[in-house]
Amino acid sequence: MDLIWVFLLGAFFSFIGSIPPGTLNLSVLQLGLEGKVNTALRFALAVSIIEYPYTWIGVQFEYWITSSPMIIDNFQLVTAIVMVSIGALNLWSAEKPTNFSIKFNDSGFRRGLILSILNPMAIPFWIGVTAYLKAQEWIDLSSVALLHSYVFGTSVGAMVLLTLFAFMAKKLAGYVKNNRIVKRVPGFTLLILGIYAFIKYLT
C-alpha cells in the first residue's frame, strides 16, 4: 500500500507541476496541433525518462539539506516557506510570455531528451515538494523500493499530462496558452499547501 501511495503522490505532483506553459509541454502541444502525434509521444517519453533522474537528484538534495539540526528542529516552518515561495514563483512565471512558435524536427525523442536535460527546473521543484510531503508525514522514502516507486510516479505523471496534450492539442491549446486560471493552478496548489504547513506549525 505504501508503494502505491508514494507512487500516486509522485504522479499527482508531477502532473500538476507540468501544467504551466513551458518549452516542454508547449512543444508537445505544438506537435499535436501539427498532427504529429507519434512524434509528440516520443518527445513526451523522452521528457518522462529525464524526469526520473532529475527527481532522484532532487530527493538526494532534500536528504542533504534536511540533515541540518536547525532545519530538523524547524522542519514544518522551512517546508511552509519553501512551498509558499515555489507557489509565488510559479504564479509570477505564469505572467511571462512564452514562445509558442518553436520549430521541431521529426526526431521527437532526441529533441525531447536534449530540451529536458537543458531544462533542470524539476530538481528544485522536487526538493521542495519532497521536503513538504515528508514534513507532513504523507510519505516515507526510507527504503529503496519506496524511493523508486515515488520517483517512477513522477515520470508517469509527466507522461500522462504530456500524452493528454498530444491527443487533445486542438481542444487544450487555447486553454493552456491563454487561460490565466489554468496557468495558475500549480501556483495556487503549492500556496495552499504552504499555508496549511504554516497553520500546522503555528498550532
Tell me what you see in this structure:
The protein is mostly helical. The protein has one domain (2-202). The chain has helices at residues 2-17, 23-33, 37-65, 69-73, 75-93, 108-117, 122-135, 144-167, 169-178, 180-202. Helix 2 runs parallel beside helix 8 and helix 2 (23-33) packs antiparallel against helix 9 (169-178). The two termini are 30 Å apart. Residues 97-105 have low confidence and may be disordered.
Short description:
This protein is an all-alpha fold and 203 residues long. It contains ten helices and no strands.
Name some characteristics of this structure.
203 residues; mainly alpha
Q: Biggest β-sheet: count, sense, barrel?
A: none
**Count of helical regions:** 10
Mean of residue pLDDT? 79
Percent in helix: over 70%
- Percent strand equals under 5%
User: How many β-strands, per DSSP?
Assistant: 0
Alpha-beta classification: mainly alpha
Write the layout of secondary structure elements.
Elements: H1 2-17, H2 23-33, H3 37-65, H4 69-73, H5 75-93, H6 108-117, H7 122-135, H8 144-167, H9 169-178, H10 180-202
Helix pairs in contact: 1-8, 2-3, 2-8, 2-9, 3-6, 3-7, 3-8, 5-7, 5-10, 8-9
